[in-house]
Amino acid sequence: MRKLLARLRDDDGMTTAEYAVGTVAAVAFAAALLKVVSSDRVLAALSAVISRALG
């Protein structure tokens, strides 16, 4: 029983799991950012800023 408990408490592989969670969070953030940036209002605002800068 002690060996089983020691094995369950062992956290080998935690680093890999943490990287996986971080990667999923980064992808979710990138997807949300892409959705916001590709909206009509943001595109119009960016176009206006660029037009003012160049014109």
UniProtKB/TrEMBL annotation:
The keyword Transmembrane helix applies. InterPro entries: DUF4244 (IPR025338). The keyword Membrane applies. The chain crosses the membrane at residues 20-37. Keywords: Membrane, Transmembrane, Transmembrane helix. Pfam families: DUF4244 (PF14029). This is DUF4244 domain-containing protein. It comes from Asanoa siamensis.
